[in-house]
Amino acid sequence: MTMPDRLDLTWIALIGLALATILLPPLMPRPLLGNAVLLSLAVIKGRRIALDFMDLRAVPALWRGLVSAWIVILLLFAWLASAVAALI
């Protein structure tokens, strides 16, 4: 039996993360915490997609860092927007 390759493992992880994204919101006691958890899952999914499906594992560390930072900054803005909306 052969081991699944990286893309297969990433695909399985993305399915698991998508299911967690669907199942977790009803379990969260506070909307702001729920948003933070969902956005954290989105960061993980975005990084897996960038590294494995966009094949950024093979590029210099600077590019991987820039793409990862872009994903995190984008999600921080989304979380900030949800926090401001919760305060209004």
Automatic annotation (TrEMBL):
It holds the Pfam family COX4_pro. The chain crosses the membrane at residues 66-87. Keywords: Cell membrane, Membrane, Transmembrane, Transmembrane helix. One of its GO terms (cellular component) is plasma membrane. Its main location: membrane. It is found in: Cell membrane. It is a multi-pass membrane protein. This is Cytochrome c oxidase subunit IV. It comes from Bradyrhizobium stylosanthis. The lineage of its organism: Bacteria, Pseudomonadati, Pseudomonadota, Alphaproteobacteria, Hyphomicrobiales.
